[in-house]
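Interim report to the steering committee. The following record documents the input for Alpha-L-fucosidase (454 residues).
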Amino acid sequence: MGFLTALFLLFLLLISTSRAKYEPNWESIDSRPLPEWFDQAKFGIFIHWGVFSVPSFGSEWFWWYWQGQKLKPYVEFMQRNYPPGFRYQDFAPQFTAEFFDAEEWTNIFASSGAKYIVLTTKHHEGFTLWGSKYSWNWNAVDVGPKRDLVDEVASALRAKSDLRLGLYHSLFEWFNPLYQQDAANAFTTNYFPSSKTLPELYELIVKYKPEVLWSDGDEDAPDKYWNSTGFLAWLYNDSPVKDTVVTNDRWGYGCSCTHGGYYTCSDRYQPGHLLKHKWENCMTIDMKSWGYRRNAPLSDYLTIEQLIATLVETVSCGGNLLMNVGPTHDGRIAPIFEERLRQMGQWLKVNGEAIYNTTAWRAQNDTVTPNIWYTSKPKEGSVFAILLEWPEEGSVILNEPAAIQGQTQVALLGHGSLQWEPVKPSGLRVFLPQLSFRWMPCQWAWTLRLTGAT
């Protein structure tokens, strides 16, 4: 029996070693196929939450703008509202999260129609939302909430929804002495990544098993300094999420839009045309900040019409949309964010067929009629034309599709079949139904499904 057991173990070892292994270099790392679920998902929610949610003034970069750059609005804000000698670290006990309810958050996120979330586990301030043994007392278990906020989000998400868990992690920290020492040495030393960044990354993956790892904060340091390819080789070969995890492109200076699982390129990236590589548009409902701002006027929040237009353009050009909300220091999703998320969910209930599991079509937008974007489902023979505006004249011309009399069928999602006629030199005119406002299938943008068109 012992011999057979040993033989079986040797067989398993041979199988494991014969599997394709990713080497710690970009050519090998970039050869890994992106797991299909990510492209099919199309829409996720970004969550920026941390000690910066306490001052909730200006930006989530509050500490850097106040102490690093000493910008006048931030310096004067502190002088007006806090005593002399007050440090940024003194905000941490006020990061209380007393109203934080992970199940309530999950309900809101699921209602948006999103398929994944990405939670900031540590921003550039270095404060971790889990009790990392590498962050000493600068974490949510030792100070502030005294709770493992990452675990609460992950557990609620998996118990109460089909949402996939994503975790954001900043590689660097503004004021960490080890990072500052490495930077002063032109990154020829690696005290900070070896003792802080990499141990935290391994800890996050092993403990929480996220399916998105959203790296950020590579700054001016090269990927060799972060040992990015070494970590990613482990992630893709041996980690508990090696087959499903997706990663972005922020792994060192020069990596953005060049290396990684999918490209983010820059914040609020919107190329306006089809890219050859999978990409994601990470953007904010509050146009001026990722973190919550108490001083944000209503005019700084994108309307639902603007958000839907951003989603439609992004998906039409082959990207995913990662839409950000910033919770308050006490753990609430502000009503303005909740309203936008639930409105997006209402729209997707009617029009999700044109978003989820789609691929980019041969044309992204219409060349004759403005504000029309296309997506497709080739296996079903369907092309979707998404109208961001309802035509006043009762019909709309689609120039790009080639329709065939007696074969092409057109339907308005949420309503039913529509009549159409060919137009010269190409395209078709679709006659829209005369509906009162209450009978419209949705309120903000409308989708025509064409089958049997080329």
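The domain at 22-352 is CATH 3.20.20.80 (TIM Barrel). The committee is asked to note this result when reviewing the revised timeline.
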